[in-house]
């Protein structure tokens, strides 16, 4: 089981890194949308995050991020 968890975490991290590396191209196609990425490819998009997640067969193991051209402000 620990090997499976490690594999899933590495895959999620790779998808997140892929989004970061391809953000400019993604922001041209998916501006103001939530995208779902699995295996370094976009598998879905929607303006509503709940709707996007409900479309996924495996939401816990799919990277979902909001694509915007506006800088995001984070409050910690």
Poorly predicted regions are none
Radius of gyration: 13 Å
So how many helices?
Answer: 3
Q: Which strand-content bin applies to the residues?
A: 15-25%
Strand order of the largest sheet: 2-1-3
Shape: globular
Notable features of this structure?
alpha+beta, three-stranded antiparallel β-sheet, about 45% helix
Write the topology of this structure.
Blueprint: H1 2-21, H2 23-29, E1 33-37, E2 42-46, H3 49-54, E3 63-67
Antiparallel strand pairs: 1-2, 1-3
Describe the structure.
This protein is α+β, with helices and mostly antiparallel strands. The protein has one domain (2-67). Helices cover 43% and strands 20% of the residues. It has 3 helices and 3 strands. The protein has a 3-stranded antiparallel β-sheet. β1 and β2 (42-46) form a beta hairpin. It is globular and about 40 Å long. The chain starts with a helix and ends in a 9-residue tail after the last strand. The mean pLDDT is 92.
Brief account:
This protein is of the alpha+beta class and 76 residues long. It has helices spanning 2-21, 23-29, 49-54, and strands at 33-37, 42-46, 63-67.
């Amino acid at each position: 089981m620990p090997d499976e968890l490690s594999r899933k975490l590495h895959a999620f991290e790779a998808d997140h890194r892929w989004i970061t590396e391809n953000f400019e191209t993604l922001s041209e196609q998916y501006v103001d949308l939530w995208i779902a990425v699995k295996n370094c490819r976009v598998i879905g998009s929607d303006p509503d995050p709940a709707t996007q997640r409900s479309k996924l067969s495996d939401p816990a193991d799919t990277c979902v991020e909001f694509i915007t051209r506006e800088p995001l402000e984070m409050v910690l």
